[in-house]
Design goal:
Length: 50
């Protein structure tokens, strides 16, 4: 469990940074989380295939 937290911590920091830097048209938080999860799922599938 601890290893998963270490892996997700940098990603959470980057997402938080991007969200704070976007001043004019902020994306909904739900959309950011969904796009992150879809990217993670696709990368797992591609890694498994390779």
């Amino acid at each position: 469990m601890e290893l998963i937290l270490y892996a997700l911590a940098p990603v959470a920091v980057v997402i938080f940074y991007i969200y704070l830097k976007d001043k004019y048209e902020k994306e909904p938080k739900r959309l950011l989380i969904i796009s992150f999860l879809l990217g993670a799922i696709v990368s797992i599938i591609i890694t498994t295939i390779l």
